[in-house]
Each structure stands twice: as C-alpha cells, then as structure tokens.
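User: I would dearly like some help making sense of a protein record. This is the protein in question:
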Amino acid sequence: MDDTMALLRALLRTVRMARNTASLAAGLPDDDEVLLDAPDERLGPALVAAGRGEYAAVGTLLAATREAAEWENRDRYTTRLAAFALSRAEWFDAWRSDTPHDPDAAVVRAELAVCRSWRSPARAELLRQVAPLISAAAEGAPRDPVPWRIALDHARGTNAPHTEFEQLWAQAVRRSPHHYGCHVAALQYLSAAWYGSHGRCFDFAERAARDALPGSLVQALPVRAAFAFLTEGGGAAVHRRRLDAAADLAIGLSARYPDADPWPAEVRNLLTYVLVRLDRWEDALEQLRRIGPYATSFPWDRVSDDPLGQFLELRDGIRLQVASDRPLRTRAATRNGEVPHPRSGHGGRPGSGDH
C-alpha cells in the first residue's frame, strides 16, 4: 500500500509539472534572448567605439555624468569601462596619452588599477602602490563620490583599520549621502567575510535603507546583507524574519521599476538568488518575469564560472519547482473557467525561525 501511494504521489507531481510548466513560461524570454550584463543605450555605443580603439565617445559620456552629477551612472559606467579595458586597453592607453589630466580618464585609471591589483596574489602590496591614482582621481573631480567608492574598495583590500574606513566613508557621504556604490563598498567592508560581522552588516544595511529615498537602490542593501549571510556562513545566526524582511523590502523596490528594465537588473538577479535560498519559489518566479532578458554576472558568478548558464539553469529549476507545487485544476473549476490561485504571501517559505 505504501509503495502504491508513493507511486501515486510521484505520478501526480509529474502531471502537475507537465500541465503547469508551459504556462509558467509566459512572460519569460527564450534562452537565446537573455543577455548577460547588457549595457544601457548610453554605454553601449561608447563600448562599441572603444572596441574600435576610439575613446572620444567614452570621454563625452563620462564628462556628461560628471557635469550633471549623475553619480550612479558615472559609477556604473566607470566600472564597466575599466572591466573592458582589462582585456582591450588600446583605447584607454590612447586616452591617457592624449589627455593626461582628464578627470574622467583619471577615475577609470584608478578603477582599472584596483581591479588589476585584486586579481593578483600580491593584492595588498599592489593596492598600496595604486593609492596615488585614487587620490589623483579624487582631486581631479572634487564633487565626485566615485573615487571614494574606489577608495573604500581599496581599503578593504589593504586591511585598512576601521578608523581609516570611517574617514573614507565620511568623505563619500559628504559628496553623495545616498550613493549606492559607496554603500555597497562599505557593506562589503563590514561583512563577516572581511572586517565586521553579519549583525553589523545587517544593522548598517537596514539603517541605510530606512534613510533612503523612495525607489533608491540603497533599499536593496538588506538583501545584499542576506546574500552575504547565505553564501558566507559562519558567525552568529541571522533570524529568518530578518532575511524575509530584507527580501520583502527588495521586492517592493523591484515593483517600483518597469519590467525588463536594465537599471535594477542586478538587484533583481540578486533578489532572485536570495528568494530561492529562502524557498520562496513563487516570489522568485515573479522576479524572473521582472528581470526579462537582463541577466547579470553578479550574483551568479559567485556560484559558477558560467554565470549566464547558471542563471538559465536556475530559471528552469524555479519553473519546475513552482509547477510541481501548484495544485491540479479540478474538473469543476475548469468547466467554470476558474483558475486556482497560487499560494500567496511568501511563496511557500518555511515558517519563521533561525536560519
């Protein structure tokens, strides 16, 4: 009898998956339409020009962000351009040679030098050597918080004491109190993997999120703290309610942006990872629909050498999990045109408790 019931349960699960999986694909792009780290409409042409060895479009773009105080865009563009220069440096070398005092070239140079140093086994020593480049970038654009975000990353890699971190943090928030990149850099320094703890990381993230403007990506800091706890482990436990509250706040933030918007794509990818770890499958599926074609390397590169493949694989897994959890439609409901609702709330997460 037990074998018969087990077989029946397995059969019902298979039938649910077969019936539901196709419908769960609605709103999701095909695998070959998904892009990894797709640039926005401003950065894309600049990268294309840089690929041809031309730097003028890059200089114009970064100058515009500096003059208009578009600090979030400036930080994103600087990071992407430095990453591009790691493998294709011709355009950047020409830019530095032709305009040695350009403040926009200076900030990319500082970011590039830090990125190269982080990749080396002699990281700490190399990072100490690039400190003058960060200072030059800060002096070249005194209002710009991006050099101070770079300085915070630099401090983490050089084992800077908390007093030095606090001084850098004060300089960063003086220029832009709610700058997302600076907050992320500070959160990493305060994480249990570096010079803080899970509790301190959450305290910082939750305080910053409370003070943030509506729609600010700073409201995603608690879910980044949750990600750090879920992936790093160790240290004191974090209560399940705190993890769920971080996810809920990020869900609300995600809902403020249009679906398939590249701007919050990294936050949505990160949120999806956290929701899966919390067994909130329905909520994770909703975020996949909001992500659309915009996969991002982070967080998938933390768990796989193939971030796009990992994203697509997990996307299939989420659909299958939700499909297997949803009940079969009854014949009466089908005749009446009724569709049973999926589980509401937190997508079937476990009850509150220590994670």
Observations:
- The first helix runs from residue 2 to 24.
- Confidence is low (pLDDT under 50) at residues 330-355.
